[in-house]
């Protein structure tokens, strides 16, 4: 799964990689957790890429209980196109979630060790996501998202049995624009090349979602 990540990039970096306009400063975030707002790239009604914010944890439009979102922070890519919670979003509401890296917890003899996984280069990850509208009985609207996961690559396999789906920049348009055949992009939902990633253990301070700061991504000595 993917339950915590970081976004340290500046607005111009995000604008360049994802082809969006960023009209405001973006503060670095080292410990983004479920139910918090996350930056995401989607298509607006005119088909142009737009940077927006979603609450992390997808609430299906038909749900009567918004707390379901805290359990739907991830969607298995193998079944997302068929599952009632995700299939409508899979067909029509896809997004990319910029990330400088993500955390996973590796089981060791001493307990669970947090690992930070980042791009091997200075680029950003574009995590594959789905987003959805939800309205409460009073008519207030909430927009939420989930991150797709897939089987691990060779780097991730010793750490965890799942990893987020990472979309190559060359495939951003195919992912964001489902067109008449949403299944055309299914081949993008695969493990990212291990050689394009790096991983190292970090402090258990990241376990607390209230903790923030650069020290969270510093390699353990």
Number of strands: 12
Q: Given the C-alpha coordinates, what overall shape results?
A: globular
* Span of the ends, CA to CA: 26 Å
The portion of residues forming beta strands comes to: 25-35%
Mean pLDDT: 94
Helix content: under 10%
The DSSP helix count reads: 3
Question: Mind summarizing the main beta sheet?
Answer: 7 strands, mixed
Please write the string of helix (H) and strand (E) elements.
Answer: EHEEEEHEEEEEEHE
Task: Decide which structural class fits the backbone.
Answer: mainly beta
The radius of gyration computed from the alpha-carbon positions, rounded to a whole number of angstroms, is 17 Å
Characterize the quaternary organization of these chains.
Answer: single chain
Stretches with pLDDT under 50, minimum 5 residues: none
List the helices and strands and how they pair.
Blueprint: E1 5-7, H1 11-18, E2 29-32, E3 37-43, E4 49-56, E5 74-76, H2 87-92, E6 94-99, E7 101-108, E8 111-119, E9 125-135, E10 141-150, E11 163-164, H3 172-176, E12 197-201
Parallel strand pairs: 4-10, 5-10
Antiparallel strand pairs: 1-2, 1-7, 3-4, 6-9, 7-8, 8-12, 9-10, 10-11
